[in-house]
Amino acid sequence: MTKFVYNFHEGDKDMKDLLGGKGANLAEMTKMGLPVPPGFTITTDACREYLNKGLVPPELETEVTQALRDVEDTLGRQLGDAEDPLLVSVRSGAKFSMPGMMETVLNIGLNDSSVNGLAKVSGDERFAWDSYRRLIQMFGKTVLDVDGDLFADALEDLKKERGVTADVDLTADDLKGLVETFKKIVQDATGEPFPQDPRKQMDMGIEAVFRSWNTERAHIYRRRERIPHDLGTAVNICTMVFGNMGETSGTGVCFTRDPSSGDSGVYGDYLMNAQGEDVVAGIRNTLPLSALKDTNRPVYDELRAIMRKLETHYKDLCDIEFTIERGKLWMLQTRVGKRTAGAAFRVASQLIDEKLITPDEALERVTGAQLTQLMFPQFDDSASRTLLTRAMAASPGAAVGQIAFDNAAAIRMAHEGTPCILVRRETNPEDLPGMVAAEGVLTARGGKTSHAAVVARGMGKTCVCGAEELDVDLKNRTLRVGDRVFGEGHVISIDGTTGEVFDGKVEVVDSPVTTYLSHGLEAGLKAAGDDEDMADLVRSVDRLLTHADEVRRLEVRTNADTPEDTERALGYGAQGIGLCRTEHMFLGERRALIERVILAEDDLAERAEAMEALVPLQKGDFLQMLELMDGKPMTVRLIDPPLHEFLPDLTELEVKVAVAEALHKDGPELAKDKRMLTAVRKMHEANPMLGLRGVRLGLYLPGLFALQIRALVEAAAELKAKGKDPRPEIMVPLVGSIRELQLVRDEALEIIKETEEKYGTELNIPIGCMVELPRAALTAEDLALEADFFSFGTNDLTQTTWGFSRDDVEGAFFGLYTEEGVFGVSPFETIDTHGVGRLVKLGVKKGRSAKPDMKMGICGEHGGDPDSVHFFHKVGLNYVSCSPFRVPVARLEAGRAAVMSED
Ligand code: ADP
Ligand code: MG
Ligand code: MG
C-alpha cells in the first residue's frame, strides 16, 4: 500500500518529489535535531490520487489521524482542544516553489470555544481573538473562496469606527466583534457557517491545497517556468508557534550569505510581536538581524549557530524562516536560496575557499545562463532617462543608437561608425544584414519567438519586440510614439532585459566580466576598478571557467565567417572554427559574377570564366581567416543556400520587365532582365529549404564547389609555404547519400593533389560532411566510409525531422505549440533530445561503428545552448561549435556536463 503521510521524523531533503521542497527540508531539519515544530507531510502521491479521482482517498484520512495523534501525544495537547488547544498551519509545498499556489492557512483549530482556551493559556485575550479573526479571514479567502476584500473592508471600517490606524491598536473586545462580523461574511457568501470542527477545518484546508494545483494561475506559472503539470503538491501540517505573543516574540527571514551580491556574512530581517507574512508584507518597518543581537543575545547566538550548521549541511547558501515564541527559537523553513547570477559565482568560489565544496561541485552551482547575464552590457542606473514605451524583453542587453529603418541605412551607419538600432514593424530573413550591422533591434510586432527575437538572441544582440505603441512609417521614414515623431537618425536606447525603450542616449557600461572574457583576468580586474565586489566576481568567474576548461571533454569551437567574429571568438577561448560559412563570399560586388555563372547556361566557356574570376577573391578571404586560425582547425562549409538567394527577387523583376515592356523600352538592359527573369523563374522553388541547395547545388552546377575548394586549398598551400600552420577542413552540406559525398570527395582529392604538386607541399585536409538529414543519420555507417569527420547540423536536422520550415513555423504557430505543451521550449532553441537527439545518437553510433575514432561535432545554434551541450557531451561528440559570444557559456556548460554526468 502506498504511504501517504510522513511524519517530519521520517523524511529527508532528498525526498522532494514525494514531500515537496518545503516538506523535505522540514524533515531534514528535524533529522538534524533543529527546533522544528512537530508536524507531518502529506505526499504528492496523495495529491495526484485526489486529482485523478476527485476524491480524498480514505486511506489518507486514516493516516492523517494517526500522524495527528502522534503529534498530539508528543505535545500532550489536542487539535482545537477547548482548554489548551493545539493549533496547526496547513502549508502547500510543491517540488519547485510556486507562487501561483494556495497560500498557507495559519491557526487551524481555533473555534468559538478553543479561542477561550488559547486566551487562558497564553494569558493574552487580545492575541487569542486576533489569531481567530486571522484564521477566519485566511480560511475564508483561500479555502472557501470568499472575496478577500470583504474581510479587509470590514477591518478597515472597524478601525475607522474606533479612530485607530494600526491593527495592533484594536482591543480584545474589538476583535471579538470583528470575529462575529467575519463569521457573518462567511455565512452570507457561502450559505454555511464557518466550520467549527477543528478536524474539518484541517481536512478542508488539505483539500483546498490539492485543488490549488489546478488553478489557472498555477497553470500559467508552471507553463512559464516549464514545470510539468503532473507533479502535484504536498501539504504540510505544522504545529503553530507564535511570534505575536508580545514583545519577547517575533518572526523573521534570513540568508546565510547575501543573495544579491554574494557577500559572505549573514543577512536578514525580523519583526517582534508579529506573525507569518508580516515581515514580507511590509506592514511595519523590519529590523536588521544584527539588531537581535542587542535585544536577545541568546536567541541571536542560537540562530547564528543554526545558520552555520545549515550551510555546512547543505554546503550552500540557505534561506531560512524562523519564529521566536516567548524567547524560544523555532525553525519554520529552509531551502537552498535563490540568488543573482553574480552571487552564484561568488558564493561558489567562497565555498571552495572554505573547503565546503570541491571545485567540481562548485561547477554545479553556476550555470551558463547566469554567465550570459553577467556578459550583458548594462544601462547605467544612475543616468537620467525618458521612457517612451515598454514591450517584450526579447534578447537581453542595453543598446543605444540612431534609428535605422532598413538594411541600407543600418549598414551605412555602421560603416560610418555610428551605432544604430534597426527599427522595423517586424523582421524577416532579409533584414539580417541590418540586424548584424545594428547594435540592437526594435520591432512593433511579434513575440518572443518572432524572427527578430530568435535571431537577435542567437546573435546575442539586444532586442525589444512587440512594441505595439510604436507606429513605424516606412514611407515617410518616421517612428511615431503617441504624439511624438522621430525621424531616421534620432537616437534611442533599448533595454532588452526590461523591454524598455528610451528617448535619447542612456549611458551603458560594459560589464567587467565581458572585458575579462575577451582580454583576460588582468584587464577584467582593471575594468572592475575599486569595486571590490566586482573584482571578486571577475576572479570567481575566472576560477570556475578555468576549472571547467580543465575537466571538460568537449572541445569548444565557434561558428565564424568573418575575421572580426573569428577574433572575438578566439578571445573568448574558441579552439577552432566548427563552421565557416562561405555564402557571403558570393555577395556584394561578386554577385555580378554569380549572375554571369547562372546566365551562362550552356555557354560553358563563359561560365568557367566567371567562376575563374571568383577564385582569387575567395582565396583572399580564406587566407585572412586561415592566418588568424593558425594552428587551429577551421571547418569550411561549401556553399549551402539555394541559388535564388543570390538572384534578384522574382516579383520585383517581373514588375520591372512588365513596366519596361509596356513602355516599349527595348534595349540591352531589358534583354538582360528578360534573360535573368527566365533564369530566376527556373530557379524559383516552392520550398527552397528542401530544394536545390547544399551538395545538390554543387553537383547541379559543375565547377561551383571546385572553385571554392581550389581557393581554400591554394590559400592553405600558400600559407604553408610561408611556414604557417593552416588547418582547413572541407565540409559538404546537406548530404543524404554516400554517392553524393563520393562525387564531391573525388573532385576535392584531385584538386588537393594538383595543388600539392603545384606548390610542392603536402596538405593534410580532412573532407567530411554535415549530418543534417534524417537519411544521413540513418545511413551514417555508409557515409563514414567517405567522410573524415561528421558535423551534425542540428538546425536543419530539426527542420527535416519535424518537417518544419523554421522561417514559416516560428511566427505562425510556435506560440500556440508552446502554450499547448507540444513542446516546453522551441526545438530550435534546445535540442529535442527525444526525437532529433535520437537521430544524433544513432548517427554517432553508426558512424563510429564504421570508424571508431571518427571526429564528430555539432554546429548550429544548439552548440551554445546549455541543455543541448549536456546532451552532446552524453552522446560522445568531440566538440560543439557555437556563435562567438556563446563560447564562454559552452566552455562552462561543457565542464558542468563533465562533472555532472554519471560516466
Ligand atoms: P510560503 O511558501 O509562502 O513561504 P509558508 O508555508 O512558509 O508559505 O507560510 C507562510 C508564513 O507563515 C511564513 O512566514 C511562515 O513562517 C508562517 N508559518 C507557517 N507555518 C507556521 C507555523 N506552524 N507557525 C508559525 N508560523 C508559521
Ligand atoms: Mg515560507
Ligand atoms: Mg544546414
Which sheet architecture does the biggest sheet show? 8 strands, mixed
Small molecules in complex: adenosine-5'-diphosphate, magnesium ion
Total number of helices: 36
Strand order of the largest sheet: 14-24-23-16-17-18-19-15
Strand content: 15-25%
Net shape: elongated
Mean pLDDT: 92
Head-to-tail CA distance between termini: 35 Å
Low-confidence stretches: none
Comma- or semicolon-separated keywords:
alpha/beta; binds magnesium ion; binds adenosine-5'-diphosphate; eight-stranded parallel β-barrel; elongated
Structure description:
48% of the residues lie in helices and 17% in strands. An eight-stranded mixed sheet has the order 14-24-23-16-17-18-19-15. It has an eight-stranded parallel barrel with strand order 26-27-28-29-30-31-32-33, surrounded by eight helices. β18, α18 (451-459) and β19 form a beta-alpha-beta unit. It is elongated, with a radius of gyration of 34 Å. The two termini are 35 Å apart. 47% of the residues are buried.
Task: Please outline the helices and strands.
Layout: E1 5-7, H1 16-31, E2 39-42, H2 44-53, H3 58-75, E3 78-79, E4 85-86, E5 88-94, E6 105-108, H4 114-122, H5 125-143, H6 148-162, H7 172-190, H8 198-212, H9 216-225, E7 233-239, E8 250-257, E9 264-272, H10 278-281, E10 287-288, H11 290-295, H12 297-314, E11 318-325, E12 328-336, H13 341-353, H14 359-364, H15 368-375, E13 378-379, E14 386-390, E15 392-395, E16 398-404, H16 407-415, E17 420-424, H17 432-437, E18 440-443, H18 451-459, E19 462-465, E20 470-473, E21 478-481, E22 484-487, E23 491-495, E24 500-503, E25 508-509, H19 512-519, H20 521-528, H21 532-551, E26 555-559, H22 563-571, E27 577-580, H23 591-599, H24 604-628, E28 633-637, H25 650-662, H26 668-683, H27 695-700, H28 704-721, E29 727-732, H29 738-759, E30 767-771, H30 774-778, H31 780-786, E31 789-793, H32 794-802, H33 806-819, H34 836-850, E32 855-859, H35 866-874, E33 879-882, H36 887-900
Parallel strand pairs: 3-4, 16-17, 17-18, 18-19, 26-27, 26-33, 27-28, 28-29, 29-30, 30-31, 31-32, 32-33
Antiparallel strand pairs: 1-2, 2-7, 5-6, 5-7, 8-9, 8-11, 9-10, 11-12, 13-25, 14-24, 15-19, 16-23, 20-21, 21-22, 23-24
Helix pairs in contact: 4-5, 5-7, 6-7, 13-21, 15-36, 19-20, 19-21, 20-21, 21-36, 23-24, 24-28, 25-26, 28-29, 29-31, 31-34, 35-36
The chain binds adenosine-5'-diphosphate and magnesium ion (2 copies).
